[in-house]
Amino acid sequence: MRLLMTISMLAFLGHAQEFDVVIRNGRIMDPASGVDSVRQLGIRDGKIAAISEQALQGRSVIDASGLVVAPGFIDLHSHGQTPENYRFKAMDGVTTALEMEVGVSPVAPWYAAREGKSLINFGASSGHLPARMAVMHDTGRLLPRDEAVTRAATPDEQRAIEALIRRGLDEGALGVGMGIAYVPLASRAEILGIFRLAAQKRAVIYVHMRNGGPVEPGVVDALQEMIADTAATGASVHIVHITSMGLRETPLCLEMIEGARKRGLDITTEAYPYTAGMTDIASAIFDDGWQARQGGITFHDLQWAASGERLTAETFERYRKSGGMVAIHSISEDIVKLAIAHPLVAIASDGILESGKGHPRAAGTFARVLGRYVREQHALTLMDALRKMTVLPANRLAISSKGRIAVGADADLAIFDPNRVIDRATFENPAQYSEGMVYVLVNGVATVRNGSLVDGVFPGRGLRR
């Protein structure tokens, strides 16, 4: 009987140590723990089940010799929440893409529409802009363009907007999204009210600030509003795309954020690795005075996404009436480099593609940091870059199961060649996949294999509070 028990136990242990997937001989780089060494990973049921210096057995084996195995990248600022965009994200090493700035409303149907149909993980905030557009009957699509722009909300409308945001949080939204610059008549009292709501619900606010650039009231005034509202309410706030808001004032903005954090305020920020932003030309961003607010740029510094052409006064007026995406070449390279290397700044794309048109950041943000700013320019170390793409955004979300390589964590992994990884997307042709991502796993399922997308898999799951 003892012999039978021993044989049975050995059989059980042998079965227990066979993993769904084993990743062999990869250079494990985990910014959360500081591990940087060759290890073997065992994955079972979509989770990391073993990290070992010894060989592991699995039904499927990935040879990662010579490759970096990192936590999958988390994009906090991804407007492109479609299958087209998810494909480009996967090829850029992104395993989780979130719509946190604009957000969505209503929230529950948005999540339901993606469950079981997504290549990567997804999620969204409960958006102030879409709630305001719905309550005020604005005709805009992603961004407001009439009623929510040209008039202030009444007290009754403000209460209805807050009710929609609260409902979205109750339905699992990951925070509150705000685009104050797109609703210039939103009063400071209305914004403070949203901060109070977020503080009550313990939800982080992801905000496009009221103003940008050096012309007062500009980015300093706008950031002071955010710091004051955070101090007054106890809310937590994440400032999106600090470089396109701050422009030459970005170093001062980062000083202000550092100072606020040292005094106990919960404020974080992000940037993308490009010298141009992008938004809808019909939005309030381009109201009178836009050239000065954008640092003194000209019509030629605007690039029409649909064709790649640089604008003139004539084409600006024509496109302004029709609406559409336009790149704004207003950020200097030294400001981009400074922000990308700053320890407080997470990497986030602010990306969206529609039928192959848009900003290259939708396809190449993460590979561009790894290739251009780590390997070529040595602006920051590889480990620092990975921290900004993984554990930093995961901590902002207060999600411990992602953004790290640890037993029990979700098996979201980016496996890439550090000597080859690079972006290929350009402003003229943004729909080009990044290179050098050899494998990408989402919840233990390969979405990229041998450098190519895997067809017919939908392992992505919705992230909720």
Q: Which descriptors apply to this entry?
A:
single chain, 465 residues, alpha/beta, TIM Barrel, 8-stranded parallel β-sheet, 16 helices, 22 strands, disordered N terminus
Describe what is shown at a glance.
The chain is an alpha/beta fold and 465 residues long. The protein has 16 helices and 22 strands.
Write the layout of secondary structure elements.
Elements (H helix, E strand, L loop, with lengths): L1 H15 L1 E13 L4 E10 L2 E6 L4 E7 L4 E4 L1 E3 L7 H9 L2 E11 L2 H6 L8 E7 H9 L10 H4 L4 H16 L5 E4 L8 H14 L2 E5 L10 H15 L2 E4 L2 H5 L3 H13 L4 E5 L4 E5 L9 H4 L8 E3 L8 H10 L2 E5 L3 H9 L3 E3 L5 E2 L2 E2 L2 H16 L5 H8 L1 H7 L15 E4 L20 E6 L2 E5 L2 E2 L12
Parallel strand pairs: 1-4, 1-5, 6-7, 7-8, 8-9, 9-10, 10-11, 11-12, 12-16
Antiparallel strand pairs: 1-2, 2-3, 5-19, 13-15, 14-15, 17-18, 19-20, 20-21, 21-22
Task: Describe the fold and architecture.
The protein is an alpha/beta fold and 465 residues long. It has a domain at 72-295 and 324-401: TIM Barrel. It has 16 helices and 22 strands. It has helices spanning 2-16, 83-91, 107-112, 128-136, 147-150, 155-170, 188-201, 219-233, 242-246, 250-262, 290-293, 313-322, 333-341, 361-376, 382-389, 391-397; strands at residues 18-30, 35-44, 47-52, 57-63, 68-71, 73-75, 94-104, 121-127, 176-179, 204-208, 236-239, 267-271, 276-280, 302-304, 325-329, 345-347, 353-354, 357-358, 413-416, 437-442, 445-449, 452-453. A hairpin with a 2-residue loop joins strand 17 (353-354) and strand 18. The termini are far apart. Mean pLDDT is 95; it is low at 1-15.
